[in-house]
Structures are given as structure tokens and as C-alpha cells.
Amino acid sequence: MGTGWIYYAIKDQSVSSFTHSGSASPVIFFVKADGEKSKNHIQLSYASSFLTSSSNGFSTNGQIGYLQFAHHRKFRSKSNNILFFVGGLFDLNINFRQSSNYSGVSDINGELITSLSPSLLVELPMRKDLLSAQVWSSIMAVSFQAGYARSLPPQLNLLGISEFSTINWRMAFSKSLAVKWNLRFEYQFQLNNLRKFETLTSLSHQLTTSVIFKVN
Amino acid sequence: MRKISFIAALLLVSCTDFFLGKDPTNTPIEIFDEFWNGVDDCWPEFESKRVNWDSIYNIYRPQINQKTSEYDLKNVLGRLVNILEDGHTTIYPKNQAKIGYYPRYDFNFYGLNWIRQNYLTYYKYNSAIGYGLISQDVGYIYIGTFGNQDEQYSIIDQIIQDFNKVKGIIIDVRSNSGGNKSPRQIIASRFADKQRIYAYERYRVNKQQPTKMSDFVADDIEPSGSVQFKGKVAVLTNRYSFSATEEFVLSMKCFPQIIQIGDYTNGGSGTSPILKELPNGWSYRVSTSLLCDLNRKPIRMGIEPDIIVYTTKEDSLKMKDSIVERAIVEVLK
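^ inputs. structure came back:
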């Protein structure tokens, strides 16, 4: 598990032409199950962030929940210095935003997006330590969100690439502390662009430090 | 360290602008355009109120330039708000009175204290509801707002138990300017005989076609709570019964034992407003849903009472409320 710093920015055109941004300390839990030829990664994170815009027309409290399940298989490589893995992953983003103005008028918005993405993982073993880089981008997604009019009850929408796209990039460095303990430094960039009804774009930069306990 | 922080912040902002696009700037023209576009994107009444929003732009936009003062900008935006005649589309200037649509009507209501002093044999209340007996046969409930916490409205179960011997109940929502969905549902569900549709709503389906609307979406109400009142009920309204109160009136009127007495309601056919913001730090709300009655007609003229009654000077001099007097007669029929 770990924690760190996240910068989060969102522009939800159905509510505002302004970018709302802020930073927060996320809490992260993850489980890694590495075999000889395959790797599984489950990650759960949560952050609550106070978001503001340049207009200061209203302030927003954003709740950001994220769940990821990734499975990678080793790709044949002649070199043992660099290991390549290809696989797929399932992302679940839950965003919930409560906005209020200075007159006490408030409004609630949010959406739930699950996406399926092919992924490429590259690992560079360094004695007991490990440097890794991963990129993925969704090919299909399902959103649970209000319709064009925000006041409509949420509905399920199947989204193609033209309606939902992501760019994700993760770099991590794992430092061996002891036989069963590792320290992991990670940077993750996430850009989501949802174009169902109105355009909603969000991006985040996340820097985290985690402690990993090896079971086996 | 400061330099590094500054460069990091600069990189973050430029990266954010690159992917998310630049924000509107704080000029009178962009403020006007932002409001006009915000309404154009989702307001549901262009067709039903015959508002040509493009023409409005052509008339009022030339009145704004980069040197327009805040006072003049407020006046122009105020004219736009008044053209919409929608009590839910409102601008909130910072630290100033909000810009809204406030037509003047006769009150037809002397206030709860007046009712209490002249009609009620006992009186209990919380911050949302006051109630008491007018006689052994008639109970009276005043709901001042639907904007409080749900727990405040659960008192309705206690009230119905207290009123177990009455023949009829008067529910007074005059001058109740609305609130939230859940409180009005809690109250109405205690008078429901079975699940019934009480209203329909329509929504915009895209921003390109301002008059293209969704199909009618039915709103229904069903019995809930530990006790139900099945006797006669009169719901009293005036022109200041607005917003969630009008939805409450519709949800009560769909039951056969309930009648509406008094004046028309306000006519808040544009409803479910969302909160948006303007470049100068003001915020505004715009309706996103068109509320229609069971005949699928927008309630823009107000909900018509089953029995129209206005308060009269003659009655008031006798310390009587003409609408309450008529309601007493009706619930005892």
C-alpha cells in the first residue's frame, strides 16, 4: 500500500467551460502476482480533492475512485536485460463531484467508466531492483452517466473509440529493502476523453510511494 | 527549490491547457457569450415558450462590448433572464442580489401565524412543517419548504397518527418555493392509494437542435411509510407555490381523494436546474427538464386548481381565510 500526490484536472462541458483542478493525497492498495511467464496486477486507489477553476464561480469537491486489473504475458525476447510483456487491463474510474457556489446552491455530477485496454509493459531488472514502464489505451468502454440533460437518471452506454479514448502511462521503480520488503516509486499519467452527450476530459499526474510485502 | 516548483507548476498548467483546452477569459463579451451558450445548450423551453434565442443574441449581444460596465452587463443579462420567464434560470453575481425572474402576484395567504391564531386549536411544528387541528374533523398541515433534511418530513407519520379521528386534512403549501425531490415524495407517499403516474418530463437531446426534445418520461409516486391517510385532502396553493412544490401538487392531485384549492401555482415548467459558472466568478443555474402535467402539457401557466378561490377582504375582516374556509367545506363533504 502507498500514498503520494495527485494533480487532477477535469473539464466537464455539460457543467462548465472551465477546467477545475486541484491536488490531493491518494491512498493506494495493490496486489501483484508475478509468475515466470505472466504478471497480474490489481490496484485500488482513492483520492478526495478540492477543485477550483480560474473563474472561482463555484468550488467542487471531487471524489476519484480507481480500480485496475491487469494481466500481462511475457513476450519472447533474446535479451535478459530488457523484458517485454503484452496483455490487457480493465480500468474502472468512478468520479463524483459536488459543486456549490457562494449562495449555497449546490449540484452533484459524476460518472462511472469501465474500459478495456491492450497494454505493453517493459521491465528492466537492475540486480535486486526493477525499473518498469507501461503504456495502455482503451479500445472499448462502458459508461454509467446521465444523458445529455444532466438531470436525467444515469444510463449505461457502450462506447467505441470515437466516444471514449484514454492515454495512460506508468513508470515505476522497485527498490529491494529486505528479503520480503520492496519500496516502489511510481509515476502515472492518465488522460480520459469522454465524448458521449457532452465532452468530458480529465487528466491526472500521480506520484506515489508504496511499500510492498512479498508473500512468496 | 522555488524555481523547480515554478517550472513544475508551469509544466502542469501548460499540459492541462493542451489537453483540456483554454478557459474563457473574463471580458463582458465572453461573459455574455458564456451565459447565452449555457442556456442554448440545455434549456428545455425554446419550443414550448416560442423563444428564438438566436434573435435574442442578435438584439442583445451588440449592446455588449469590452468596455461594458458590470452594472450594464447585469442589466442586459437580466433582460435575457426575464425573456425566458423561468424561475429556475438564475444568475448569482458574487456578493450581490441574484438576477432572476420574479413576477408579482397576489399572495392569497396571510401567513402561517395568522392561520395559527385564527384557526388552530393546538399547534406543533418543526423547521419544515407546522400542524394542528382546525376542528375535531379537520386537520391542518403547513409545509413551508421542501428544502430541509428528509428526517424533518418523517414527522408526517406522527401527524397522520395524531389525525386518526379527522375526516379530512388540509395541506397548505401556499408560498412554499420548493426544495428537493425526496421530501415531497415522503409526504405524498403517505396519501397514495397505489402507484400512479403524476407528471411527465421532457429533456433536450442535443445542443444542435434547441427544439428537439426527448419522449415524455413518466414520473410516478407510490405508497410508502407506516401509515396512509385515505380520507379527503385539500391542497392549498397560491402563485408562490413553486418548483418542487408544484411537483408535490401534481403528485397529490393524481389521487382521487385529493383536490387542489386556491390560486394557480407559479408555473415552473422549466425545472431540474444545473449549476454553471461565468468567467467573472459569477455562477448561474439553467433548467434542463420540461415539467408537464398528466395531459402532457407544460405547466408554464401554473397548475390549475380544481376549485379556484381567492382570499377576500370581506373574509379577512372577519378573520377568515377564504381558501381555508372553502377547503374545510370540501374535505367534510
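Chain A has a mean pLDDT of 91. Chain A has one domain: 2-213.
thumbs up if we can close this ticket
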